[in-house]
Specification:
about 170 residues, alpha+beta, five-stranded antiparallel beta sheet, two-stranded antiparallel ribbon, 7 strands, globular
Length: about 170
């Protein structure tokens, strides 16, 4: 059985959240591999929720519409980007870049509310580590989740209206 399928089966069968480190041990991979697998599964439509106790598979089946947003902006525009997406009821599941040496690098975000935006920006303000977009001249991608594709399209239109440069993710 493929590792990601094993991961889904573990989450489906668990009555409680499963810590990333525990999943890594069970599947004999690094915690970073688990984070990446979770991001790929979310992109494929599985409603995996991150909690302080671990990961939970809500309902066990695909439910949300998903799309990828390619965008270019400065670090100063980060707050506005996230505010627009959240205001349009879009969840920003992750951020990723295609690094010329390391390949795809993914960071799990799960930003869905104004409070999430505030917490993320506070964490960012207290970190010396550059944003992924600072490594790529502003270009980065997000996996977005929403009730339907129209909601995602409306959020993208709002970003365009505010002057953000969108990039075809393909």
């Amino acid at each position: 059985m493929e590792r990601r399928q094993q991961l889904l089966e573990i989450l489906r069968s668990s009555p409680e959240p499963v810590a990333g480190s525990r999943l890594a041990g069970m599947l004999q991979v690094s915690r970073q591999t688990i984070v990446q697998d979770i991001a790929f599964l979310r992109k494929d439509g599985y409603p995996i929720i991150s909690t302080t106790q671990g990961y939970v598979l809500e309902g066990g089946t695909k439910t949300s519409c998903r799309g990828v947003l390619g965008i270019v902006h400065t670090p100063e525009q980060l707050k506005r980007e996230l505010e627009i997406l959240v205001a349009h009821h879009v969840v920003v599941e992750d951020v990723f870049i295609d690094h010329p040496v390391y390949g795809r690098i993914i960071g799990v975000l799960d930003i869905a509310t104004p409070k999430d935006v505030k917490q993320f920006l506070e964490k960012r303000a207290n970190s010396m580590i550059p944003l992924f977009s600072e490594v790529t001249g502003g270009l980065h991608y997000h996996t977005l989740a929403a009730e339907d594709q129209e909601t995602i399209a409306d959020a993208k239109a709002a970003l365009l209206a505010e002057g953000f440069q969108l990039v075809d993710p393909n």
